[in-house]
Amino acid sequence: CEVSVWDSDEPVPRCDLLKRVEGVHGLLCMLSDRIDTEVLDAAGPNLKVISTLSVGFDHLAIDELRKRGIRLGYTPDVLTDATAELTVALLLATARRLPEGIQEVKSGGWSSWKPLWLCGYGLSGSTVGVLGLGRIGLAIAQRLKPFGVKRLLYTGRHPKPHAQEVDGEYVPLDTLLCESDFVVVSCALTPDTCGLCDKAFFSKMKTTAVFINTSRGAVVNQDDLFEALSIGQIAAAGLDVTSPEPLPTDHPLLTLTNCVILPHIGSATYSTRATMAKLSANNLLAGLTRDAMPSSFVMIDGQRGVYYSETWKPNGGTLYLPVSGGVLANMAKYDQISFEQGCFCIGDAMGRFQNKAQGQAVHCWRYSVVEKKLFIALTYFFTNFQVFQEVLHALECL
Length: 398
What we know:
It comes from Electrophorus voltai. Residues 88-266 form the D-isomer specific 2-hydroxyacid dehydrogenase NAD-binding domain. GO terms for molecular function: glyoxylate reductase (NADPH) activity; hydroxypyruvate reductase (NADH) activity; NAD binding. This is Glyoxylate reductase/hydroxypyruvate reductase. This protein is of the alpha/beta class. 31% of the residues lie in helices and 17% in strands. It contains twelve helices and 16 strands. Helix 4 packs across helix 6 and helix 11 packs antiparallel against helix 12. The protein is globular, with a radius of gyration of 23 Å.
């Protein structure tokens, strides 16, 4: 390949990006690069693949990529452990007021021992609530349980079978907020979750509760969070993500001693970043040669669905695709599709699966022709990624 590199840790300036992408066949970008219609137009029809060095994709014009047939690779899974570790570290630092303690030592505020000086909140015997028990949410819960957490609550679109690994209880959001001593946000940024953590959200939490967000900054209404922290509606907050990033140095949240803010370093370990870089390069090369990407992001009829081709093993767990809207509008009674233990399934929120089928045959006679085609295409995906893509293109579903 002929490679053009922006050789700097700083993001490429917009004007340089628009100039450099002209005529390229592939693009490796960062979370800090906004890849919108303007960039895609500047690149032109040669652009066939984009690989982003991130698990997040809100910096990309997904619908435009779908319309133009541009393949997309990203880096899920590889940063799960690092992000989970950072979340636990941030929770402990916030709850036990470690930054305040460090500052007291440096400023000479540490004098004699006092009974309640710098007291915080412990995990032992506590109730932890997790918003979004996906890969990272589960990894966070697994790391918190050994601290003596009494109850692990979680909420989301539907119950997760893997929650039993951490004795997780599926509850409505309001219940989670009212009963949790620690609220950890680990959900994806979607239209439903954007601004989810607002004034009403914080008003339902305990006054002694600690709020942690390591997902996306836009999930939180920061003005409402500032108010909740200022008036003692909640005890403390720890953020690894903000909106915008970087957070302006004069932002009101930075004036609070009960708010710990990190510069989005969830995946910042040497090994994780090296793995992300390698995966991004391999995604890009595979896209250029039209081979199966190690980790690709796929859009189906405007619905966001995340699938894993070579990195996910069918017999190693259950993969879920939320079912709602678009081509699946007639399936309101079902909440999930899964491929479990070698079987392609359709299931409801209670995990009751129906129409199981082995291999490439799916018995879905109850559903419309479009739905049947989609199920068959999905089944092809789990057995052969290249065939899956060809089937979807043929069905005009992608």
